[in-house]
Design goal:
Layout lengths: L10 E4 L20 E7 L6 H7 L6 E5 L6 H10 L3 E5 L21 H14 L6 E4 L5 E3 L2 H6 L5 E3 L2 E4 L2 E8 L5 E5 L15 E4 H6 L14 H8 L8 E2 L1 H4 L4 E3 L8 H5 L11
Parallel strand pairs: 2-5, 3-4, 7-12
Antiparallel strand pairs: 1-2, 5-11, 6-13, 7-11, 8-9, 9-10
Length: about 280
């Protein structure tokens, strides 16, 4: 269903990636510039368009939807962005839908949609193409500098994320050797990689070299990040730390607050008739 307020998880994958300002060096060509593939899960709800607009980073993208059909709202949004994209759709299994659980924290969301984006990349990405894969959710706010920081990721790069895990910021703590000694996180700190999904990017070649690097419904919530990072076999200690060695925040987890629509429910005719909100 595409009706407003339904819980169809629409997952989008920004696949043609962010492109930097034109390089003035005549010896460089477009193929020298790594492409950033941003896989973004999203689902139909009242604030969906607002969330997508806030995180619109003017990047070519490959969009993947958790729905039996592609939703018109997302299709129109992508067309209006003026960038190239691939719009995919992949429904969440009925027994894995969030409404089946009393808490949104008891089920992993976006698993099938992110995996659909990864499969698309493996089928269509040229192995000679330089690129980076980033899982950018639609309820985050991004500083454009983040994408320039991740563009030249050699294996797996990482950085701080604000307003996540019940704290102001989760971030890497570096040892005297400049490598990650620990990841500062209060939420399930025992995880192999106690990080948020927006805290890392993976070199495209690692995704292509490890076809089993996907997300899973069989791991507890909070372990999706560890699942895929373990599959690409880059230890926490060896992550490439960006954002001034992890001292700057360039991404914020800014999920919209629940809407108060008590008056809307009293209307005989809904206020959004013939207008997309």
């Amino acid at each position: 269903s595409d009706k407003t307020g339904t819980k169809n998880s629409v997952r989008r994958t920004l696949a043609s990636g962010l492109q930097p300002e034109p390089d003035t060096d005549p010896s460089k060509t477009a193929t020298d510039v790594p492409t950033i593939f941003v896989i973004t899960p999203t689902y139909a709800r009242h604030v969906q368009k607002a969330e997508l607009t806030r995180m619109d980073i003017r990047t070519p993208r490959d969009d993947s939807i958790d729905s039996k059909t592609k939703t018109p709202l997302v299709t129109r949004f992508l067309k209006n962005c003026g960038v190239s994209y691939t719009h995919l759709n992949a429904p969440t299994p009925p027994d894995r839908r969030p409404e089946k659980y009393k808490s949104r924290h008891k089920v992993s969301r976006g698993v099938n949609q992110r995996n659909t984006g990864l499969r698309w990349l493996r089928q269509h990405a040229n192995e000679t193409k330089r690129g980076v894969v980033f899982f950018g959710d639609d309820d985050n706010t991004y500083d454009l500098q983040l994408f320039e920081e991740m563009r030249h990721t050699k294996t797996v790069s990482a950085w701080p994320v604000a307003f996540v895990g019940g704290v102001l910021v989760e971030r890497p703590l570096l040892g005297e050797d400049g490598k990650v000694a620990k990841w500062s996180s209060v939420h399930k700190p025992e995880r192999p990689y106690p990080m948020d999904m927006a805290a890392f990017a993976i070199n495209l070649q690692l995704i292509l070299d490890h076809p089993d690097a996907e997300f899973s419904y069989t791991v507890p919530p909070g372990y999706q990040e560890s699942t895929i990072l373990q599959k690409v076999q880059v230890p926490l200690h060896d992550l490439e730390i960006k954002a001034d060695q992890g001292t700057k925040v360039l991404v914020w987890h800014t999920r919209s607050a629940p809407l108060e629509l008590a008056s809307e429910k009293k209307l005989k005719v809904h206020s959004n008739v013939n207008i997309e909100v």
